Amino acid sequence: MTRPDVALHDQVAAACLLMRDADHVVVLTGAGISAESGVPTFRGADGLWKTYRAEDLATPEAFAHDPRLVWEWYGWRRTLVAACVPNAAHRAIASAARERPGFRVVTQNVDGLHAQASGAGGPRPLELHGSLVRTRCTRCEQRWDDRQPVDATSMATLPRCAACGGLARPDVVWFGEALDPDVLDEATRLASAADVCLVVGTSAVVYPAAGLANVTRHAGGRVIEVNIAETPLTGAATIAIRGTAVDMIPRLLPASPETATEVHG
Question: Strand 168-172 vs strand 130-137: parallel, antiparallel, or unpaired?
């Protein structure tokens, strides 16, 4: 019987070779990569805030009915995320994006940690579901980076657009809203052109993001999955690696090309 650590070593070695030889790589990330930075999950059994579920607050209808309540929740989330920093997986991905012209990041996360890791030295990640640290005007649609605490004590103190004075909202995709078509089209284009789609920490059940790996596969590319558990994508992946993003991604994306095939068991 093959020992689990030997099998993992072989999988990582094979994945390193695929990553090394790929001219075009798209990395798709989900909540699993940010959980290791301490970003809390706001859905599921532990997702209650006061007496509300995320599904009750993250909707256009909830914002239209009570924008102050919705902003209070997002302000609380923004404060929690502000205490989190990019981890080793975020940093390894950002470094690869700076060093390799054909390397791009597509994320389902709204925490802004990929952008924070990238800094000013690389292509910005495509944020499929928007960003918690960006704000958008409901009137003129202007967007701006915004990490400031939110004062939701009254309607008069809620964030507003400096250009037109319109009420602002978090620049995230809510339940019942479509993804930004330009962002989705670009993500699909990248996935279809990718030699490798590296899927990290995503449950592979939220569409259309979950379909991007299959776009790569159907176009003839390879799919590498890194997750702590099996997902609906596992059976279709070229290589499925069980482990945390922090443990595995720096091994798949070493800091320099000279160490790309150096694998530590």
Answer: antiparallel
What CA–CA distance (Å, rounded) separates 88 from 69? 35
24 is annotated as an active-site residue? no
Torsion of CA 73, 29, 265, 251, to 10 degrees: -110
Say yes or no: domain 1-39+85-129+179-265 is CATH 3.20.20.80.
no
Query: Could you tell me where in the chain the CATH 3.40.50.1220 domains are found?
Result: 1-39+85-129+179-265
Which of 9, 129, 218, 264 is flagged as catalytic?
Answer: 129
- Residue ranges, comma separated, of all CATH 3.30.1600.10 domains in the chain are 41-83+130-172
Question: Per-residue pLDDT tens for 124-174?
Answer: 899 999 999 999 999 999 999 999 999 999 999 999 999 999 999 999 999
Query: Which is the CATH superfamily of the domain at 41-83+130-172?
Result: SIR2/SIRT2 'Small Domain' (3.30.1600.10)
Across the chain, which has 265 residues, the per-10-residue mean pLDDT values are 66 96 97 92 65 88 97 94 96 95 96 91 90 96 94 96 97 95 97 98 88 96 96 95 97 68 37
Cβ-Cβ contacts under 8 Å for 2 (sequence gap 6 or more): none
Long-range contacts of 98-102 (CB under 8 A, 24+ apart): 98/122, 99/257, 100/25, 102/22, 102/23, 102/24, 102/25
Nearest Cα to 75, choosing from 158, 1, 14?
158
Rounded CA-CA distance 90/112 in Å is 11
